[in-house]
Amino acid sequence: MGFKMGIVGLPNVGKSTLFNALTKTAAAQAANFPFCTIEPNVGEVGVPDARLDKLAAIAGSKQIIPTRMTFVDIAGLVKGASKGEGLGNQFLANIRETDAIAHVLRCFEDGDVTHVDGRVDPVADAETIETELMLADLESIEKRRANLVRKLKGNDKEAQQQDRLLAEAQAMLEDGKPARLVEVDADDAKAWAMLQLLSTKPVLYVCNVGESEAAEGNEHSAKVAEMAAAQGNSHVIISAQIEEEISKLEDEEALMFLEEMGLTEAGLDRLIRAGYELLHLETYFTVGPKEARAWTIKQGTGAPAAAGVIHGDFEKGFIRAETIAYEDFIACNGEQGAKETGKMRSEGKGYVVKDGDVMHFLFNT
User: Fold this and answer.
1) Which of 81, 87, 103, 278 measures 20 to 30 Å from 326, CA to CA?
2) pTM for the full predicted model
3) What residues have CB less than 8 Å from 233, skipping those under 6 apart?
4) Distance CA 265, CA 51 (A)
């Protein structure tokens, strides 16, 4: 599995420019006026992972297949979206389908690019969107609880659980806090996820700064960092302009350009890494002469479920997983060396896959 991240923000903060750069396409129309993105643009990118190249080189793999990340560029949001203002209803529907929110905030000064509220204040912008998501959730919760009344009278256990969770979310929202702050027991986790409340989505703040500020940020991004830390969220500093320029260059040229700008890596790499941390994801690998491939799983995933990411039959008929830690695969110069030095392990159904594991699954058909 990869994961889907929605790129959101107020109009003219650089969402579409960033999307175009990240996906190396001009599918989204970047223009200096609100709502230039009418339909959500979807783009897939390979997740950069230097480990995959090293594994492929040792194994002589003919093909390298990275895991994928999906970006969704969603129409600009304005105050009142929860009541249908602007393209609010469409925005709210599209965001429900994402795993996380990359909230792009304008942290650059440019008199030629208009701001929907006539000022540059990323913290206020963040609060505007957070408020709209919370208001939309409150409205949704009130409707859902009203629809549950009949089932509750009939002592429907599922309805009782749903109503209890909705009540907890409602109390949190009425206290002015997003629903993701509700503490949910493991027994309620699945039912809670099914509620699909907008303010439960994990948030990554993306500070869009000017080219000269991409390495260190500025006073605006510093305020966002302070806000994110207080919320327990994370942030990254990116210059959408730089990412756009990099997307047009060959790899070697891009590296030279990054060095000139005082950067060690592209913003895409930082954004994906932050997204992985946000969603508690990790990667395991399958390696052979035909291909070296990366697979994304949730942290804490057991070996059978990890096998199921490749194919459902692998999980159903799981027998065991021949496993080599990434560091051991490299140190032993491949699978044969790992076998000879006792670094290849045979793991059963109870094994929890670790980030970087190189795995081969045995299963019954």
Assistant:
1) 278
2) 0.80
3) 202, 203, 204, 205
4) 16
Answer yes or no: are the C-beta atoms of 43 and 269 closer than 8 Å: no
Tell me how far CA of residue 41 lies from CA of 44, 168, 248, 268, 274, in angstroms. Answer: 10, 34, 20, 17, 22
Averaged pLDDT in 10-residue chunks for the chain of 365 residues: 80 84 56 42 82 96 90 69 50 81 89 65 91 90 94 92 96 94 93 92 92 91 93 89 85 86 84 85 95 94 96 93 97 96 96 97 89
Cα Rg of the chain (Å, integer): 23
The encoded tokens of residue 140 equal 């949704």
Question: Which amino acid, 184?
Answer: V
Could you tell me the two tokens for 355? 């980030």
Query: What is the C-alpha separation between 151 and 325, in angstroms, rounded?
Result: 51
Tally the C-alpha atoms within 13 A of residue 83's C-alpha that lie toward its C-beta. Answer: 4
CA 153 to chain centre: 40
Contact by Cβ (8 Å): 266, 247 = no
